[in-house]
């Protein structure tokens, strides 16, 4: 009966997704040849150049995908925890086996081949999280239910970031937050992450900019105004009383109005005024939470107090915790420094390359920025600039649309699953691909900091290609068996 339900695996496999995978891999291979092309090269399959090596990696990825599809789908669930433990052990020993490559200790040499275990860790973590959160008895009700999932993504991320010094690969694990949100995690957790980033950027970007009136900094005042708005929003959201919102907003405006009036005669320390307003709102929030038994407001008040300390600690973290090259990249991105020949060189050249392509591009193998090697890492992290220069706006939009359809297809696959753990794994795959696409294209266009993560199936490299292939084809194998999963 089971055999008749499931049929042949080759009939149940999602060939449309495989077709998009092949399209991305082949077009990426063509652009790698364009990015690394020199006039004395004659063949795209010459194994002495990067395009030829990438062709070998693509053939290997197809064989890997075939093997993954032929394995019984239950094997991935059975081995999930074992593979997770082995993966942590491998990540721990990697810095002791790896060679220093541009400050990173994440590459293991296996003869003529270099492999990066962090690329495969994403797939294994996704399998382990899917198994843990997909248990019948597991329900995401309170924050305690997130302790283990957060630990499962946090431990490998910290190992990769601290021991292997690979910040970009570590940040990819943040993509799992979207999976947790889909499974029922409170949106407040995502809001906390957004608030933390906003406060950090405001305090760093304008922390040293003095106010035109009184004393204090634009950065601190902006952060306190943001916290003030958050406090008022949550108080009024819980009570739903319009008059209360008007009173609170009026009181805040009155305090700042009096401060501006006093500032005519005496310089007012607006940093302290703004913090005083926030603390007063915190005390009122605590009173309201106790009086009306709205304990969520107590959590909001506690978080606001934490944010006050966090805002003042951002400057210390920026100067003492981040590496010098990381600080410079952020300063260049935020417009705090101009460094066209240093930290901002890659991004500036990438934007020049993308912009020079205009609407239809300069033509395949005719990109001047590409041919003259102006863009470093142009066949790996900055491969998208080759697309922009040689294929233009039309080609760039075409690639982005293909990625969009690919990710939407993954979401559709996730939604049709009968097995909870398979659905969680499918959303993990979609989230990882979305994170890589957003960060990679964003940094090429100068919208996000340069953190060095590959464009899926496009960037040169066997580890990333095989890691993404493993991630995708395990999903396709699980999806092909969905008729057998009647849970």
Give a structural overview:
With 487 residues, this protein is mostly helical. 69% of the residues lie in helices and 1% in strands. The protein contains 21 helices and 2 strands. Strands 1-2 form a two-stranded antiparallel ribbon. A hairpin with a 2-residue loop joins strand 1 (108-110) and strand 2. Helix 6 runs antiparallel to helix 7 (117-133) and helix 12 (218-239) runs antiparallel to helix 13. It is globular.
Q: In terms of topology, how is this protein built?
A:
Elements: H1 2-6, H2 9-12, H3 15-36, H4 50-70, H5 74-78, H6 80-97, E1 108-110, E2 113-115, H7 117-133, H8 147-163, H9 167-171, H10 176-182, H11 187-206, H12 218-239, H13 242-262, H14 270-291, H15 295-321, H16 324-333, H17 345-356, H18 368-371, H19 383-415, H20 420-444, H21 462-480
Antiparallel strand pairs: 1-2
Which segments are poorly predicted (pLDDT under 50) over 5 or more consecutive residues?
1-6
The Rg value, from CA coordinates, equals 26 Å
Helicity range: 55-70%
The total count of strands amounts to: 2
Largest sheet: 2 strands, antiparallel
What integer is the average pLDDT?
Answer: 85
Report strand %.
Answer: under 5%
Structural class: mainly alpha
Given the structure, what is the number of helices? 21
SSE order, one letter for each helix or strand = HHHHHHEEHHHHHHHHHHHHHHH
Major beta sheet, strand line-up: 1-2
- End-to-end span in angstroms? 16 Å
Task: Please tell me what the overall shape is.
Answer: globular
